[in-house]
Description:
Chain A is of the alpha/beta class. Helices cover 32% and strands 24% of the residues of chain A. Chain A starts with a strand and ends with a strand.
Amino acid sequence: MIELKDVSFRYEGAKEQAVRHVSLTIERGECMVLTGLSGCGKTTITRLINGLIPDFYPGELSGSIFIDGEDIAKKQPHELSSMVGSVFQNPRTQFFNTDTDSELVFGMENSGVAYAEMHRRYDQTVRELQLHKLCGRDIFALSGGEKQSIAFGSIYALSPEIYLLDEPSANLDRQAIRRLRDTLLKLKTMGKTILISEHRLYYLRGVADRAALVEQGKITEIHPWETLEGCTDETLHQKGLRSIRDTTVELSEPPLPAQTPVLAIRSLAVARKKNVIFDHVDLTVSEGEIVGITEPNGFGKTTLARIVCGLMKEKSGSVLLNGVPARASLRKRSTFLVMQDPNYQLFSDSVEHELKLTIHREAPQDATITEVLRDMDLEEMRERHPLSLSGGQKQRLCIALAALSPARLLIFDEPTSGLDYRNMQRVAGMIHKLADDKRAVLVISHDNEFLNMACTRIISLAR
Amino acid sequence: MKLDVRCKFLILIAISVIAFSTKDVFYGSLVFSLVCLLTFLLGQGRKTVKYIITYLVLVAFILLAKHVPTFLRGMILMIVLCIRMCMPIALYGQTFMKTTPVSEMVTGLYALHIPRGFVITFAVAMRFFPTAKEEFGHIRDAMTLRGINLSVANVLRRPALVFEGLMTPLLVRSFTIAEELSAASITRGLDNPAPRTAFVRLHVTMLDIAITILFVAALFGVLWLRENGWGWWVD
């Protein structure tokens, strides 16, 4: 169905090739996973197949790509759009319309599907993917998982033979990932060909037929999924891969605090415009502790983080820092939040200036900065522009900001979205260091593998 | 009441033209009343009432202006005039947005033979506002966390830093969003040159046409009256 023959590609302006001499054949009805470290070239391979390369991402391309026996070099991107459906990593940036119905039919409208047929396929898509609840809604009001479902639906309505997914689970919670898995299984029974580039592997168990390891632009290994089943987690981790088994977390009660906890929340309730987001929340975090919070979808995890940081006010209940009731304005100054997307938090012109930028206190000493940069594995990046760093490096820079802040309470909101195993391990190690440095850490994540790795205690606030 | 999207566009143009040609209080109010009637019929009663109250407050300002010193009067009247002239357009514009999904607007624009490039730009612009709001929220959070919250004190004391904190993430995010959005649209055939079809079918009823003609005629009637007599009413 898909065949790549000795394909190499170098992005315009890049020094090195993103993929080098890649040959790959995917049979009709097969589900193939591409995995490997961040920046290994797996996303580039998907872009080669949906035609975004070389039309949208120009560069130097050699070799040839066949879909259903036809060379796609002769095809326009819109001709490919009816054969290959693409779902991307970020649910927030892959919809074009403001309401869900328009988005579901967007692809069909563009390709000129007739009125009656369009309505038939719309109804079919809604029925088969169970999107009833999402019809006629404002897309901006949907959760990440719901947005992803709509993106899927809009592709499904076009009924392409090939589905390309680029890290589809990166911004999803566990429940949404389960839905994604169900959809993939359905596509498989329909005989569709699926290619997924992904870090998280556990949800692809029973879905994927083969897995390919991509390293530095090359496909180094291809195995049937059964071979992976025979590997221990250690073998996978050594290659920088995440576990193929789903991990569960064990919830535990807080130990009796030996001293005053850094953070204590008592029967907290939060509402937005009269809608109660959550209430009766109690939580304590002591010095040296790393508390992971895992919640089902829609609990308002990010809201909790914003409350603790003083970015939002509570409706009732109290938040105590070091035993003293703290209003939002005080919480703003005594906590630090590492946001899910580091791009919001970086704005200086070099890594060093970024770390020296302080308002309410003196800038840290050069020696301290050197030490923190060494801890975060960013020593060589000192003079670099923060925005020229890779995703993982940007995130580590944000963690460095947290390390240098005087805040005793640090909060991490979904620190693993889009991270490969190696980066995930690194982040976990850094969080441990921060906790050892007399701080309390709160980690909000739905990634069980990471929670187990990073946290000293995991709790659930929902009842 | 429902109105065909093309009629709505036509009325929008008529209101924009007329509202700016009727500056005086009397004729301006007449235009505003007509627009209120229409938006009320379109089911935006609450919004209409809010606008009417604001309008009355503005008129009260005009009356009060007689009792303030001359140098202030000119300024107040100027500001009131600007707001007053924009109000019919704003009220109708908001009603238009509230009662018409973007997809219907897009279909309407295609039906009016507006070039594709323009329609796509329009659709993206519609998507831009909620996106900008979302992004701005995140950026404000991030700035607050670093102690450079958007307060008057910070803007006055460290304008460069506040500007940097606001603009850098805004530009970076805009670039990313633009790129990802374009990629997603292209893979869904946005650049397909074949004639586009539509999910919503537009129906112009005789009633739509009648209402539109009546309303546009009434608007131009106000303009005509203003030019040809009745002038003694206002002084």
